[in-house]
Amino acid sequence: MTDRNESPSDSPLADSPPAGPAPADPRDIERIRRQRNLVMGLLLAAFVILVFAISIVKMS
Amino acid sequence: MSQTAPLVLPADWRDFFALTKPRVMSLVIFTGLCGLLAAPVTIHPVLGFTAILCIAMGAGGAAALNQWWEADLDAGMRRTAGRPIPAGRMDRTNARDFGVALSFASVILMGVAIGWLAAAILAVSIVYYAVVYTIWLKPRTPQNIVIGGGAGAFPPMIGWVAATGEITLMPVLLFAIIFFWTPPHFWALALFVQSDYAKVGIPMLPVVAGEAATRRQILIYAVLLLPLSLLPWWIGGAGVVYGAAAAALSGLFLAFSVRVGLRRRTGEDDRMKPEKQLFGYSVLYLFALFAALVADRWLPVHG
C-alpha cells in the first residue's frame, strides 16, 4: 500500500510560488509616494496662486 | 459587486489622472471653452481660465465616479480592461473618494469664483452623468446613450453661462446640438465594438434592437442634426462664417451617416470601415463646428 502521509515537501507543488501578486519592492512604494506627494504639492501651490489671482481680479 | 485583487503598490498619480478620462475631458474642455468664447460678453482671462478648470474638474470627477461604479463591467471589456481599477492598480474606494472630492471642489470653486448659476448647472451635469446615466440608465435601456448624452452637452452651456451669468436660447441650442450629435457618435462606435458590450450585458442598441434599427436611428439623428446645427445662424446668434461651416460640416456628417445607414454588414470579416469613418469624423465634426462658432464671434468678417 502506498503511504499517503506525505510531507508537504514531497508535494509536486512544494516549490511553486505562492498565489497572488508578488510583494512590491519598498523602494517602488517610496518612489510612488514621493511622486504623488510632489504632484499634490504642485497642485496645492497652483491652487493658492489661482485663488490669489481670482481675489485680485474680483477686487479690481 | 465582486472584490478586486488585493493591491501591493499604492496607486500612481498617473492612475488618478487616468480615472478622469483625459481624452473625453479634452472634448469637454474644448466645447466649454467655445461656449465661453462664443458668448457676447467678454470675461476676464483669469475668471475664464477658472471656469474652464472647474468644468474640467467636474468632468474628471464624474468620470472617476463612472469608473468606480463600472469597474466590474470594465474588467469584462477589452477596450476598458486596462483602466486603473480593473487592472488592479487602484482600490475602488480611493477612486470613489477621489471622484466625490473632485466633483465637490469643482462646484464650490465655480460658485465662489464665477457664479452660482454656472455652479448649479455644473452640479446638475455631474449628477446627470454619474447617477442618472451611469447608475440608472446605462444598464437598463438601449436609449441610455440618447438621454445620457445630455451630460456631455452641458459644457458649452456652462461656459456660456459662466461668461454671461444667464441662460438664453443660444446656450440651449449649443446643448441641443451636442445632445443630437451624441447618439450617432456612440452608436457608430457600438456597431464595431458591440461584442464587448454584449459580453458584459450593457443594453446597447445594436445588441438589443439589432444593427438595422441602429443604422436607421443613426440616419435619423444625422438628418435632424443638419437643421439644428444651422439654427444658431438662423436666429441671428451666429454669423455667416458659422452658418457656412455648419452647413458644410453637417452635410458631410449626413453623407457619412447615409453610408452607414443604408449598408448592412457583409459578414464576420467585415472591417466596418464606414462605421469607423463615421465615428472618427464625428469627433472632428464637433471640434470643427465649435471652432467655427468661436471664429465667427472673433473674426472681423462681418460688420
Brief characterization of the structure:
The complex is a heterodimer of chains A (60) and B (303). Chain A is an all-alpha fold and 60 residues long. Chain A contains one helix and no strands.
Any overview of this molecule?
Chain A has 60 residues and is mainly α. Chain A has 1 helix and no strands. Chain A is rod-shaped and about 55 Å long. Residues 1-18 of chain A have low confidence and may be disordered. In chain B, helix 7 packs antiparallel against helix 8 (169-199), helix 8 (169-199) packs antiparallel against helix 10 and helix 8 runs antiparallel to helix 12 (273-298). Chain B is flat, with a radius of gyration of 20 Å. By secondary structure, chain B is mostly helical. Chain B has 12 helices and no strands. The A-B interface holds A 20-24, 28-29, 32-33, 35-36, 39-40, 50, 53-54, 56-58 and B 5-13, 44, 46-47, 50, 53, 88, 113.
Regions of chain B with pLDDT < 50 over 5+ consecutive residues? none
Helix content of chain B: over 70%
- Main sheet of chain B? none
- Strand content of chain A is under 5%
List the total number of helices of chain B. Answer: 12
Measure the end-to-end span of chain A. 96 Å
Task: Report the average pLDDT across residues of chain A.
Answer: 75
User: If you average the pLDDT of chain B, what whole number results?
Assistant: 89
